Each structure stands twice: as C-alpha cells, then as structure tokens.
Amino acid sequence: MSESITILGIESSCDDTSAAVIRDGLLLSNVIASQEVHAEYGGVVPELASRAHQQNIVPVVDTALRRAGVDKHSLSAIAFTRGPGLLGSLLVGTSFAKGMSLGLRVPIVDVNHLHGHVLSHFIRREESDPVPSYPFLCLLVSGGNSQIILVRNYNDMEILGRTIDDAAGEAFDKCAKVMGLPYPGGPHIDRLAAQGDPSRFKFARPHIPGLDYSFSGLKTSFLYTLRDNLKTNPDFITENQADLAASLQHTIIAILMDKLDKAVRATGVTTVAIGGGVSANSGVRDAVADYCRRRRLTAFIPPRLFTTDNAAMVAMAGYFKYIDRDFCRYDQTPFARVTV
Ligand code: KG4
After folding, report:
1. For position 2, what pLDDT does the model report?
2. Ligand 1 pocket, 116 CB below 6 A?
3. Which end of the chain is more exposed for a tag (fewer CB within 10 A), N or C?
C-alpha cells in the first residue's frame, strides 16, 4: 500500500487566519479565526490584519493539527496561499509555511487563492461525497473578484469573463454602506432581501459585450435612487430597507446569471459551480440551482463554510499540486494581484 499524503493548508490572504489538514483527499480539520477588529472601521485595515495573523497563526495551526489527530512530523507538505491578497497578510502565512517546512524538512506548495476557491468543490469529508467532473464552469464571486472561469483541470483554468470595475461583493458592500448597514454589507442585504419586494425598485444594468461584468453603474444608480428619494422623505431608507435590499440583490443576481448563461451556451459545459464570499448569498444559490435544474445541468453549490476564505481549499489545491510534485521554491514571494 502506498504511503498516505497529508497536507497542512494555511490561508492568510485577507482577514481570516485559517489552517486545515487534508489526508488522502479527505478533510480532517479546518480552523478559521476571523478578525473582528475591522468591523469598527467599515472595512479591512491591512496593517491590523497582518498583526492579527501574527497573533493567530500559531494557535490556529496547532488547533488544526490537534483536531485532525495529526502529528506535525507526519505531514507530507505545507500548502499556503501565495496570492492574491493583502501583501502584509500573505507574508505572515508564507513566512510561517516556509519556516515550518524547513524545520520539518517537507516541501512547500504555493496556492493561488482564486484557484483554491474553485477547487473547494473537491473538498470531501467522505469518499462518497460528489465532486465535479472536468470541464466545468465556476462563477467566482467575492469582495475582490467576479469571474467566470472555465476549469479544464485543477491546473488548467481560463477566465472567460471578469469584472471591468467593481466586484459583485463590492456592489453589495458599497450599497449596504450607503444604507447605513454594517460592514460587510452582503450578509445584511441577504437577510433584509428575504422580506422585501425584488421588483419594487429598478436599478441600472450594464450593457457590456462578451462575458465581462460591470457593477459600477448599478452602484451609481442605487446611490441616485436614495439621494433623490431622501430629498422628499428623510426616512426613505428605513421605511424601504427590505425592498431596497431585495431589489438590489435581484439586480445583482440578474447581472450574474445573464453572463453565466451566455458562458454555458458558448462552452456547452454541463456542470456549473459557484464560489467566493458572494456564493453564500441565498438568492445567488437559489438562482444557480434553479437555472441548472431548468437546463438539466449539474450544479455545485458549496457549503457556506467553504464560500468564504478557508484553508481547507488551500490544502485541497496543495494536495493536487503535491501529487504532481509541483513544489514552491523558497525564494518565491507572495503576490498581491493576479491575472491567473
Ligand atoms: O471571498 P470573500 O470572503 O473575501 C474576498 O473578497 O476575498 O468575500 C467577501 C464578500 C464580501 O463582499 C461580502 O459582503 C460578501 O462576500 N458576502 C455576501 C454574503 N456573504 C458574504 N454577499 C451577499 N450575500 C451574502 N450572504
């Protein structure tokens, strides 16, 4: 029998410090320490994020190994998020992974954070858990990205469309902010939208050719709707919170689904997945599931735990690269931006 492969994954690209252990493709543990410190600033403060990663990383890794019941000496490799993300935050995870790998004499595997989100669909707790078959489309929607990716293999991904301005998550967050909702606004809009009328307000939709997205026009039109109505009714927002949220969410979903449908038609793929923070949105999840049901496509909707930043996806991506002996050199450094 061949020796088992045990990968420790480390994620520190933004404001979550996370560590996970995957053995022979199955998830043994996934620990996430979210940073509360940013809430009062209305967004992630990079300097505070990297300091919090420094405080969290040792206990988080330790807990992940303990929960997995894995001794660090039995690790085959350490996978870490190399980018994209906040440079100071990435440096914490990268340096930690390098130091630990040198101490244990095991290789390091660098993971592209966006690939991690796509590959989160391969995380299994049981052998029988379903995974997508290649090729498939992944709608990757987060606070920093809105992309439609054609996934031919774990290491062969092509971006068919991307946002030319704001990401879908930014549209949620920025519109929520002008409504006076706390950061990040996406989950608040989701909650309010459940009680509102999605057809009450009409907001601008982009007319961009091809498969690219744009959300800045929607944001402006949302802002103007508030501004115009507040002139005559200072309580406009509080009186219409749910309908505003539902109409905003409805428009974002319509924009996302329009291009996703075009991509499905253009590629002829039969499997569609979603990933990234915005894929936690109830409306987005329902819309993709409904769409796939109607078109007889197979849908992969991730458990909510794997929609936001987590190390399980990093360990998963690292596992695939480890099998191909695709290791990272020690002189390789984190990167803040990526074009994939
Ligand atoms: O992937 P992610 O955790 O971080 C990066 O951007 O890398 O995504 C965060 C984004 C935020 O914009 C947040 O508002 C959004 O995901 N989000 C949601 C929901 N949960 C998180 N947006 C809409 N509805 C949600 N339920």
Report:
1. 64
2. no
3. N
In the reported structure, the alpha carbon of residue 145 is separated from the centroid of ligand 1 by a whole-number distance in angstroms of 10
- Written as six digits, the tokens of 106 are 């095991």
Q: Which of 147, 156, 121 is nearest to 300 (CA)?
A: 121
Phi, psi of 247 (to 5 degrees): -70, -40
Give, in degrees to the nearest 5, the angle at Cα 293 between 292 and 298. 55
Please check the confidence at residue 180 and state whether its pLDDT lies above 80: yes
Query: What distance in Å separates the CA atoms of residue 253 and residue 247, rounded to the nearest whole number?
Result: 10
Say how far apart CA 145 and CA 213 lie, in whole Å: 10
Count of alpha carbons within 13 angstroms of residue 189, beta-carbon side: 33
The verdict on the CB of residue 217 being under 6 Å from ligand 1 is no
CA dihedral 264, 265, 270, 271 (to 10 degrees): 0
Give the C-alpha separation, 225 to 133, whole Å.
Answer: 44
* Residue reference for tokens 């458990």: 303
Q: How many Å lie between the centroid of ligand 1 and the Cα of residue 170?
A: 8
Residue identified by tokens 């990526």 is 338
pLDDT (average), residues 223-241: 98
**CA-CA distance, 241 to 135, in Å (whole number)?**
41
Q: Which atom of ligand 1 lies closest to the CA of 85? A: 7
